[in-house]
Design a protein that fits this description.
Layout (H helix, E strand, L loop, with lengths): L4 H20 L9 E16 L5 E7 L3 E11 L2 E11 L9 E11 L5 E8 L1 H5 L21 E12 L2 E8 L11 E9 L4 E10 L4 E11 L4 E12 L4 E14 L2 E10 L4 E11 L3 E11 L6 E11 L1
Antiparallel strand pairs: 1-2, 1-3, 1-17, 3-4, 4-5, 5-6, 6-7, 7-8, 8-9, 9-10, 10-11, 11-12, 12-13, 13-14, 14-15, 15-16, 16-17
Length: 312
């Protein structure tokens, strides 16, 4: 059976987790690893138009997942950890119900920083595009970024007061080039509970494409917040530079959060989104959204969705 890149990445991450947490950081017999399971079942009904304006209704899975976090105190102030998360395709026919999402292990060295390796989230996304990521199905389509998460990555993070630095490298031998294939660096700053800033840079060394971005979230009040990001994609091969802006405003009334978003690619598509999320109890959430796409060179499209999500 042919092994896909995702499966290979998951295999590498699992091996790293086993080696780091057991062979290197093996606890004493009296000690126990802390295990925290988590996950979500997310299902929705959608009606979206394609590029020809034909709409299709569909009931489908929307990112359901299950995961486990492990941690072990190695010594005073030093902690080993691992995360394994897989996507669950609730609509799969049985041949491939799971999909690798996160699989990494590492060590928290206190003031010396945090080092982890495996399949991980992009630090560019965490610092920049996450500020406008408020919709369960739509949104963030204008943002210029390389990836949301990927395999074969190593991340080193360190915090100095309210400032956090994240450095991420991807080393993937399948590209045919030795050394670092992707390098990302990000800085986030929490001025206080009301203002959060982030800036990041991503360098795709294989394809010679660079990304720049900055993001901001401001809590206008206890129930209203505004998120914004500006991103740039610089293709050094074609000398083509593409910039985009996104903004999202959220307001909560009792247990329902209403959101409005807008994203625009320079000389490209524009996306307008409205949505709402309603909490029912502690773990259950109902959501719905509508998005209209102003296509720069083609037929404008729209879509709507409604779903239910249970988190634990």
């Amino acid at each position: 059976m042919k092994m896909t890149k995702k499966k290979a990445g998951l295999g590498v991450a699992v091996i790293v987790a086993v080696v780091v947490l057991w062979s290197v950081f093996k606890p004493a017999p009296a000690e126990a690893v802390e295990i925290t399971p988590y996950g979500s079942l997310n299902y929705m009904i959608s009606n979206n138009e394609n590029a020809s304006g034909v709409s299709t209704s569909k009931a489908e899975n929307n990112g359901s997942s299950i995961g486990v976090k492990l941690s072990d105190e190695l010594s005073e102030g030093i902690e080993g950890f691992a995360t394994l998360e897989v996507g669950i395709d609730a609509d799969d026919n049985g041949s491939a119900p799971f999909d690798s999402k996160l699989a990494y292990a590492g060590v928290d060295m206190g003031d010396a920083g945090i080092l982890s390796a495996g399949r991980q989230n992009s630090v560019f996304k965490g610092a920049v595009t996450s500020h406008t990521d408020v919709f369960s199905e739509y949104g963030n389509k204008a943002a210029q970024k390389l990836f949301s998460r990927d395999s074969h990555t190593v991340v080193y993070s360190n915090t100095m007061g309210a400032l956090t630095f994240d450095n991420q490298v991807k080393i993937d031998g399948t590209t045919g080039k030795s050394g670092v294939d992707v390098y990302e660096t990000a800085a986030t700053f929490d001025m206080n509970e009301d203002v959060k800033l982030g800036a990041a840079y991503s360098d795709d060394k294989v394809n010679e494409v660079k990304y720049y971005g900055a993001g901001l979230t401001v809590a206008v009040s206890e129930v209203t917040s505004i998120g914004y990001n500006h991103t740039i994609k610089d293709n050094t091969v074609t000398n083509l530079e593409t910039s985009a802006n996104e903004v999202a405003v959220s307001h909560t009334i009792v247990d329902t959060t209403f959101s409005v978003g807008y994203g625009k690619i320079e000389d490209g598509n524009a996306y307008s989104t409205v949505g709402a999320k309603k909490k029912v109890g502690t773990n259950l959430e109902l959501y719905g959204a509508y998005e209209s796409t102003d296509v720069a060179s083609g037929l404008d499209t729209s879509g709507m969705s409604a779903g239910i999500k249970f988190k634990f």
